[in-house]
Hints:
Layout: H1 12-16, H2 32-37, E1 44-47, E2 50-53, H3 62-74, H4 80-84
Antiparallel strand pairs: 1-2
Amino acid sequence: xxxxxxxxxxxxxxxxxxxxxxxxxxxxxxxxxxxxxxxxxxxxxxxxxxxxxxxxxxxxxxxxxxxxxxxxxxxxxxxxxxxxxxxxxxxxxxxx
Length: 96
């Protein structure tokens, strides 16, 4: 079981190649497609053949997108208030 905080940064080349939040945490990797679908990864564009992050990689509504990704991954409606109170114990998820 994984316990810990999600602290992740990406460089433009890594994002162009797919980018994964949970690359180092295989137990949680099932969340990656839903987070990508929700738009949680910064946009990358090519400039003169090299990858560049749009807006320096900043996503103003990242938290909203993250909650949408969780809802997609688990097939539930995710409430900001319940999430803030710790009502979705992701560390309790165990993928057998």
